[in-house]
Amino acid sequence: MTDFTMEKGADGVALITWDCPGKSMNVMSTEALQHLDGLIDDALADDAVKGIVITSGKKDFAGGMDLNALADMKNAAGDNPAQGLFDGIMQMHAALRKIERAGMDAKTNKGGKPIAAAIPGTAVGIGLELPLATHRIFSADNPKAKIGLPEIMVGIFPGAGGTTRFVRKLGVMGASQYLLQGKLVDPKKAKSAGIIDEIVEDPVAAAKEWVLNAKDADIVKPWDAKGYKMPGGAPYHPAGFQTFVGANAMVNGQTQGAFPAAKALLSAVYEGALVPFDTALKIEARWFTHVLMNPSSAAMIRSLFLNKEALEKGANRPEAPDQTVRKLGVMGAGMMGAGIALVSALAGIEVVLIDQKQEAADKGKSYSGSYLDKGIKRGKIDAAKKEKVLGLINATTDYDALKDADLIIEAVFEDPGIKAEVTKNVEAVIPDTCIFASNTSTLPITGLAKASSRPDQFIGIHFFSPVEKMALVEIIKGKETGDRAVAKALDYVRQIRKTPIVVNDERFFYANRCIIPYLNEGARMVTEGVAPALVDNAARQLGMPVGPLQLMDETSIDLGVKIAKATKAAMGDAYPADAKPVDDLMFAMFEEGRLGRKSKAGFFDYDESGKRQGYWAGLADKCPRMEEQPSLIEVQHRLMFAQVLEAVRALEEGVLEDIREGDVGAILGWGFAPWSGGPFSWLDIIGTPYAAERCDQLEEAYGERFKCPNLLREMAEKGQSFYGRFGQNSAAA
Fold it and tell me: Which one, of 707, 446, 400, 728, lies nearest residue 578 by Cα?
């Protein structure tokens, strides 16, 4: 094990350096922590060592725990995985507590050796929990560094003492934004918050100087000193009690009770605040084990950490030479084109932004200017960075500027005729090796590629709006799309630091294919007389970011009408008859000018500023309410199965080739209940036999759209799970 090395200097300082071989970022494994524990024992037992400094051999300190280590603890425990996890977590606590106590006498708090952390850059997860156990944290003045505990974002919470130490260090109120929201800050803000102690030019030198001069009192943590009182008050103190009441309300308001980690975290904080520190660590370990044993936790870790990381690293990239983009042409300077130009220039790519009129092209470029101005105002970038980014964007009407481009992204109107014309005009100018991509959200790529003289170099790159905020990019392979085009798209998405999924061509591709049934099912229930508030709140309590009615208002009713008309025209007699009630409602709202938030009238009423004022009263006239409303579970199952059955069909039909892409794409693309890990993970949680049985019940009650797909039926009969059958990357075919 070489993740940690120790050098004992003649000055009496033992310098422990964390440097994981072959990795760009340090991550903690069980073996590495055991090795560190041994080095600490060695240094504490050596009379020649006066103090210890822990630092990193990389530009950053650490990116957190190797989450596979948690699975290993579980698997190694055999028939009692919870006990295995708890024991493993308590071993972590013991190792960090040994650093914190540093050989001090238990009664007098004297005789210990000072231990400091020297952080050159980012320190997150256990990469911060380890420094928190030392006696002083020195950080480089690195504005790009991120400090914090983001575990809640992947369905767990800080379980290596970070929860207990943050609360005792900052108080419940101060710690809540970091623990419950996973907030990451730069070193200056971390120091201001009281998370780290010093910002210096040379953290190692400053840490060495400090440990050589530290006194006994300097290394006793406040919670180990006599008379310690928690900042802001303990739970039984009036101020502390009010904080917990507010924190519970905030968590329930944000999560609707759908995310188990948040509730477990609050329980660990509350119960831990009532007892001495070492007992609080045991309580933290119990609740952390409780979360890890919840299938939601495993699903979120797998999808939002392991699978997401694998896709970003090119798990499904075909064999092809490096396809790094040097010069990008963006056709169309509207909102999508402007956003694509922005994220590309931010990644250092030269961009040609083309529109029919120079005024429109300039307006598209100004979108980047406005975005960068906000960054300057927030202190995220400086004027020099803005100038550099804007300097990479050439806003023009001149197609000749594309002569040396190696990737084109067309982002014009969703009209096949206009797209075909742009394709031909661009291909007359660009090099033979240039890849052409369409940013369509609904039109089949194979059809659009007919306008191209080189369909093997034609591909879909579907961005989600707004481009700069949405993490997912959907890459669509047409029937003739070649491997180099796929590799080019994947390499480009990696350059702009987004997460790609690759799907095969079909109307609506994957994301829109699944989100449209969700929207339609919500509207259909309203036409049946289900209360709109029940529909939207049921969705939010499932963990969806917004309900289907609210989402339709946000994306605009006229867009839904346009999609419905285009789909009906394309499908002809195959268009589902049961879509009529939804179409009738949407078309009627469209005719009345109720287009959603943008027109300040939709399923909701809005004030002049665009703030929702409640559901439209006239909706009850068009769709009279049922006297007896359905149960919450019934509404939730209709909304959930409407989405997941489309995901299964997409896998069955070969649109999806990898269930990892199906899960990650669902969460990042349309906010599918993150706690579930995605549609395939959710089906694994509830079990395929129950899922098939529920499909039959829903089909009988509501129609053929809930018919159990053959693939799901077959798996249910065999008792298979999706991740059990398809492993990490097998396709249904």
Answer: 707
